[in-house]
From TrEMBL:
UniProt-listed InterPro entries: Cation_antiport_E (IPR002758), Rossmann-like_a/b/a_fold (IPR014729)
Compartment(s) of residence: Cell membrane
Membrane topology label: Multi-pass membrane protein
Chain positions covered by the region annotation Disordered: 323-346
Compositionally biased region (Basic and acidic residues): 326-335
Protein name (Swiss-Prot/TrEMBL): Monovalent cation/H+ antiporter subunit E
Regions of compositional bias (Acidic residues) in chain numbering: 336-346
Primary subcellular site in the record, as a coarse category: membrane
Amino acid sequence: MTAGHVLIPVGESTTLRNTVRYAVERAVDAGEPTTLHFVFPLSSRGVVGDEQDDAAALLDRIELWVSEDLEETDDGVTVETTTIGADEYLFSPGDYADTIVDYAEEHGIGSLLLDPEYHPSGATPLLPALEWELRGSGLDVEEAPVERETRRSRLVRRSGFGQFLLLFGLAFGFYLFLAGTPTPYNLVTGGASAVVVAAALWHVSLTGPVRPRRLLGQFGRMCLYAPYLLYEIAVANVQIAYVVLHPSLPIDPEVIEFDADVWSTVPAATLANSITLTPGTLTVDVESRHFTIHTLTAGSRADLLDGALERAVRFVFYGRAAARRPTPDERRASESDPEPEPEAES
């Protein structure tokens, strides 16, 4: 992959996050200004299945991933995101290749990076044929060397010393927290226990690389989030106590569903547990980003869809830029807004 301009066709896949990380790392290592073009080919003129909305959400997510990987420094890397093929009907690998090559020629791009699990038409594995078509166009094509997800994921993973140190620190800190006092005996036994825990879990946890700067930032933001969550729990307790003690018992139970704007396991689990800890709401099910929540009152339902907790969780894991993204209510409003009717010809 050469520096300058790099084109990366994208779609939902199990390896997309790692492909984005690889593209950023290679661009930074190149040591010269590089523009990463992430493009989403629309397979059906952006009509079927609200594909344009899905594409916009995915491209927004990629921009945040890139900012995460750059760790708040630009390093000469810029990002362009867009959809392509909106005016065409893309079906075969040749159709997708023509659209991608047209974009590359229009923007003077000679390098193309492919996600190894990129399936432009959905579940059908077109990547080998698509890659063959693209190589025939004269582009410098590279497949990102990232691990593919297997039917049975490997239990043991390659890990660096950073993972070992982080596990040791977490285990040692937790031991001292339970012990209560840092006596010599507790320090020695805690250190020995932490070594055993870190050695046992070193290769079966912490799948990503340890980045101290990012971890410190997330830890600091988590320290701000904890009192905020406690405040929300206290307010919700008062509201539910009022409902329970009211003579008419004004409850209005309802199960609602929405797609949360979080993109990995730990943030989704944090949001789900925060919702459950807040009286009046209970997380019934979480499937990827899709949340099913039982709400006890109209007020708790409105507070949930107002998105304060979701924004706070995004702030913890993705930073301030992610906290400003639309709330569930705002996303629902944008989805329900009717498209403007074309003006009548005179």
